[in-house]
Amino acid sequence: MKSSDTGNIAELIEMLRQDAVEKYKEEHGWIPTTERLPDQREFIESYVRSAYAAEFLVTIEGAEKATTLYYSQTGVWFDKQGEPYKVAAWMPLPEVFRG
């Protein structure tokens, strides 16, 4: 495999990931943080799935792509390094594909 093939595969994987995110958004929709934050049930369900912290799919203010961040019950969105972010919208993570 050539190094250029690796770049093309990485681009394809990113395109497929973004397509999956877009499809999920169409079916379930983003929840703006100005409307509401994760409730107790959503927090617990997400926490149990992650086993590290309550993880959600988010859009960070000013970002062009969705990503995942963790949410604390104190209202802070953060990454694995503990860096806080200002989130514009969120949604629960979709179920893992089981083919």
From TrEMBL:
InterPro entries: DUF551. Residues 29-95 form the DUF551 domain. Pfam families: DUF551. It comes from Coprococcus comes. This is DUF551 domain-containing protein.
